[in-house]
Amino acid sequence: MRQIGKKSLVLISALMLVLLAACGGNSSQSSGEGDKGGTINAKIGVISYLTGPGAAYGEAITNGFKLAQKEINEKGKVNIELVIEDSAGKQEQALSASQKLMSDDEIVALLGPTLSTEMNVVGPEADLNGIPIMGTSTTAEGIPQIGEYVFRNSIPEALAIPVAMEKAVKKYDVKKVALIYGNDDVFTKSGFDTMKEEVEKMDLEVVTTQTFQKGQSDYNAQLTKIKGLNPDLILASALYNEGAVIMDQARKMGITVPFVGGNGFNSPEVINIAGKAADGLFVATPWFSEKEDPKVQEFIKKYETEYGKKPDQFAAQAYDALYIMAEGLKNAGEADRDALRDALAEIKDLEGILGSFSFDKDGDVEMDPIVLTIKDGKFQIFE
Amino acid sequence: MLGEFINPYYLQIGSFILINIILAISIYVTLSSGQLSLGSAGFMGIGAYTSALLTIHFDLPILVGIIAGSLVAGICGIIVGLPSLRLSGVYLAIATLGFGEVMRVFFVNWESVTKGAVGLSGIPHIGRELLNFFRDAGFDPSSIGMRNNQFTYLLVLILLLLINIFIIWFFVRQNKSRVGRAFAAIKMDEKAAEAMGINITYYKVLSFTQGAILAGFAGALFAHVLAYISPADFAYHRAIEILIFAVFGGSEVILGAIFGATFMTIMPEALRFISEYRYMIYGLVLIFMMAFRPQGIIDENIMQWLKKKLPSKRGRSHGSRNQKHM
């Protein structure tokens, strides 16, 4: 009997929670309608990787959103409310979360999910339901091509890597290259595909292609092979934690040629892990924290005071993404899914902390990345 | 109207629960003959990839793809099951876990077909195909007041529910049959069972293969519900997750596996409001469960108690069982 009493108590409290949540939704709606000072009230759903091994990405991304939200709301033209859901990096969870958000008619757009694999599942569903969705960290190929409601503001590997390669090849007069990549990760695999394509276009000789797995710690076998073949340049499609170790071991082995990496290689952590060995790495990225743009420096300062650490490119991309959404809402003039989609598609030359931003006809990014290189233990712009 | 009551979010979770129940039953079946197999993720991957590739490249209907997926997984089950019969307990667990990893590496490296780590996208979606079918037949979901996505997910849910009912019915029946008794005898004591004249090799491979077919079947459904798969979906995390379904719910009875899968799927969703902390609670629940109820939430005792509580329903089944004994 007592157990049944307890159970019903739990049930009642759960019900009350649900009611409370429902009340919250209603009140915000009514206040939204009451406010007619030209402000557009909009609810935007966020799907982010907040628990699990990649939670650091999700945290940086949501922090970027929150910071931008605060600023945008202070300006007063658009009032954005964020509804944040966790995907735990799993496709099923991302899909459930997106269904939850999409079934709320007040939500006009989705931001996220964090991983390209998740976007491959969520994107078609959002497109089918006619809700604009924008990835802020999905760099794999073919994401915006999923449908006309799917956008992204993260620079794809297919745009970033060729720029870095071109500059490095010119500077060092490269003829022979060696490739090394992680073959069990979407991100590094799609980076490798771009590299291979670009190598063929540039007519370079590939001396060897080596693979490694996520979490590997010893790369001596692959590097010995590379060293024996004497390439002029090493193209490494790796995430920073593996990439930094590869560079460290390569330098210890006496390989002195420069490395070109993808977007995932671009992290201050590379210098922390590899130290001096990181010198000679080339990456192309829209995000450079030392940029002498007052907007960038202000963002970094604000982010540091708010969250106690330096923002990375994921936070910066998220920050810009919400500004793009706000601009879209402003141009649409109302919080409506279809109007917002059309307004987003027309965004051109919007100045953000990553530079001047436009969508192309598919909803993909059009912007010029900067090429960075590590010299004397610091990221510097490569001219 | 009708549309207002149906939230695609709940339907979505419902379909994942039903798929997970099939996976939980797949491990329950192998456990019921005393074999601990961690290869379910591998078999799931075989089913998913077979079905996805067949439907993408050969334009076969989804149904054919799913059946082919389960069969291929079953054949692999026989191939793996026969040599690993010599192993038992932890050794079998490690061997099958190894098999799962081999399959994953295989999917990663066979790039020309599986597209490697990038994964397969554009797999036909069960719900969307069904929707097209209904549309061609001249039925419009809006005529009963439903939006397209509500209708699609409702169809998927109903379909999965029917499949689940059939599978559960089948295995409940099997448990009461000669095959089920043989499984139980082998689980209790292999030597004694052999002395009683039970063909151990046959029954062990049978239960292993049944588990593989079910896992492959669930994998194929998974591929056609998500419309995208990648090798990372079938890593050992998945194997452990499936094992937890059965161990948490109770691996002695089929109801335990069903309960485990349902509970473990709903919990992370129900705890969404505490966002970052929800997986901590998930972990805590597992620790407490292992400390206080190592046999799982639902075991034989609870089943007995349930039977006593629900005499009217269970009475008839008691009757029929007695008749069989006579």
Automatic annotation (TrEMBL), chain A:
Positions of the Leucine-binding protein domain: 43-377
Signal peptide segment: 1-21
Keywords (A to Z) from UniProt: Amino-acid transport, Signal, Transport
Superkingdom field: Bacteria
Entry's Gene Ontology BP terms: amino acid transport
Database matches in PROSITE patterns: PROKAR_LIPOPROTEIN
Family, per entry: Belongs to the leucine-binding protein family.
PANTHER family per UniProt: LEUCINE-SPECIFIC-BINDING PROTEIN (PTHR30483), PERIPLASMIC BINDING PROTEIN OF ABC TRANSPORTER FOR NATURAL AMINO ACIDS (PTHR30483:SF6)
Protein name, UniProt field: Branched-chain amino acid ABC transporter substrate-binding protein
From TrEMBL, chain B:
Alphabetized UniProt keyword annotations: Cell membrane, Membrane, Transmembrane, Transmembrane helix
Keyword Plastid applies: no
Compartment list: Cell membrane
Pfam families registered for this protein in UniProt: BPD_transp_2
Source species, domain of life: Bacteria
UniProt GO molecular function: branched-chain amino acid transmembrane transporter activity
Segments traversing the membrane: 12-31, 38-56, 62-82, 89-107, 151-172, 212-230, 242-267, 279-298
GO cellular component, one term: plasma membrane
Predominant place of localization: membrane
Membrane topology according to the record: Multi-pass membrane protein
Keyword Cell wall biogenesis/degradation: no
InterPro entries: ABC_transp_permease, LivM-like
Protein name: Branched-chain amino acid ABC transporter permease
Species for this entry: Peribacillus cavernae
